[in-house]
Design the sequence.
């Protein structure tokens, strides 16, 4: 009796999967298209925002005739290393008065400068581009200012 009851119960469980009501697993195309469109719009917005954030900053062009003072001196430099090496070399060579504003970031700001007989302002312009958002260089009539103040880069 118990054995036949278990057999009937097992058969009922197997057959309960067969139903007279058919399930509709096909998604509604209107809902699917709306979700896809919304997802695509969000993805496009994120992509455009990331492109805008990662776009290189425009490099200001200097008119050579407008440059006066110590930055017009011709220099030759061969440097691969931290920006502090450039600052030390400039202080030792006494090209211009050198000032450092702010605290240097904890990571090294590696520069690669290789110039033969070029104006100092050209070298400093390239160094400023290589420093990116970690610092800025301002050239005055008789001084050069290296600014490492966070959030104030020019």
Sequence:
């Amino acid at each position: 009796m118990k054995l036949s009851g278990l057999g009937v119960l097992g058969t009922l469980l197997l057959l309960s999967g067969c139903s007279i009501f058919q399930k509709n697993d096909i998604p509604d195309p209107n809902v699917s298209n709306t979700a896809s469109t919304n997802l695509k719009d969000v993805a496009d917005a994120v992509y455009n925002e990331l492109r805008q954030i990662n776009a290189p900053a425009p490099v200001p062009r200097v008119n050579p005739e407008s440059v006066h003072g110590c930055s017009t001196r011709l220099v030759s430099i061969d440097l691969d290393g931290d920006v502090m090496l450039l600052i030390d070399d400039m202080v030792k060579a006494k090209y211009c008065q050198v000032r450092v504003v702010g605290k240097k970031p904890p990571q090294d700001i590696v520069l690669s400068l290789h110039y033969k007989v070029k104006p100092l302002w050209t070298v400093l312009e390239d160094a400023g581009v290589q420093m990116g958002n970690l610092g800025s260089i301002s050239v005055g009539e008789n001084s050069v200012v290296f600014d490492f103040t966070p959030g104030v880069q020019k």
User: Anything to note?
Assistant: Residues 29-54 form the longest helix (26 residues). The beta strands are 74-82, 97-101, 110-119, 136-139, 143-147. The first strand starts at residue 74 and ends at 82.
